[in-house]
Amino acid sequence: MLNQIEQWIDQTNIEFKEQRVCCSQFFDDFEGFYPLSFLKQAYFVVVDKIPKPNFPELRQMGLGDFIDMEVDGITYKNTYYVLPHIASNLRIHFHELVHVAQWNYLGAVPFMERYISEIQTLGYEGAPLEKMAYAFDHHFSNGGEKIDVPSYVAQKI
Ligand SMILES: [Zn+2]
């Protein structure tokens, strides 16, 4: 199942490759939080509809609500997708980049395993991987002190 999702993700990221924008453009905005080397290998795509895997198996696993949930952004590996109305909102970029760091650090299959199990047992709001991303975007938007996010993720995840 996870391999099937990973295949779908790889296919989706390839499909949008021409439209993706490199996150190195946020270097000044996110200085002290995300190193340039990290931003250089992260991308975002502005889309009218957030792509989501819609496999019946995922619904059988109890993830129907998550699949149907309206979100402003979602991260697949080193690429995240955002809706046009929030594409210029730095806070959402900051949030999704926390997820890029989580994907990077854990690796694709372990990330998906953990994310799915957190959603299943605690729900989206209670999922620690989400809580970490929300805590960070809150910290950033409130002018919090600089923290190297990828290093923090590697230590605290
Ligand atoms: Zn999130």
Structure description:
By secondary structure, this protein is α+β, with helices and mostly antiparallel strands. It has one domain. It has helices spanning 2-15, 36-40, 56-68, 90-106, 108-126, 128-141, 149-156; strands spanning 21-22, 43-46, 73-76, 79-82. The protein has a four-stranded mixed β-sheet. Helix 3 crosses helix 5, helix 4 crosses helix 6 (128-141) and helix 5 (108-126) packs across helix 6. The mean pLDDT is 95. Bound molecules: zinc ion. Zinc ion is lined by residues 95, 99, 130, 133.
Q: What's the end-to-end separation, in Å? A: 24 Å
Instruction: Tell me the major beta sheet.
Output: 4 strands, mixed
Proportion of β residues?
A: 5-15%
Mean pLDDT rating: 95
Q: How large, in whole angstroms, is the Cα Rg?
A: 15 Å
User: Which residue ranges are poorly predicted, with pLDDT under 50 across at least 5 consecutive positions?
Assistant: none
Percent of residues in helices comes to: 55-70%
Task: State the shape.
Answer: globular
SSE sequence, one letter per element: HEHEHEEHHHH
Counting helices, strands and paired strands, the structural category is: alpha+beta
- The count of strands amounts to 4
Write out the distinct hetero groups bound to the structure.
Answer: zinc ion
Total helix count?
7
Strand order of the largest sheet: 1-2-4-3
Number of structural units classed as domains: 1
Protein name: DUF4157 domain-containing protein
